[in-house]
């Protein structure tokens, strides 16, 4: 099984920057959740998943 490394922190704290540096240096795959979040939230809405329905009516501050 592959190892997965997570980087978390506050908005604009440099998570993406450091993740890109680490992935380039060590040849790791870099998966940025933000690039896929909207697609999967919309898909969940179409599947009538409750959490995705709730998110679809929230404004950005509520999310």
Quick synopsis:
With 63 residues, this protein is mainly α. The chain is built from 3 helices and no strands.
Describe it for me?
This protein is mainly α. Helix content is 51%, strand content 0%. It has helices spanning 15-26, 34-46, 50-56. The longest helix is centred in the middle third of the chain and has 13 residues, at 34-46. It is elongated and about 40 Å long. The N and C termini lie far apart (33 Å).
List the defining traits of the structure above.
mainly alpha
List the helices and strands and how they pair.
Layout (H helix, E strand, L loop, with lengths): L14 H12 L7 H13 L3 H7 L7
Overall 3D form: elongated
Order of helices and strands: HHH
Low-pLDDT residue spans? none
Termini gap: 33 Å
Number of helices: 3
Strand content: under 5%
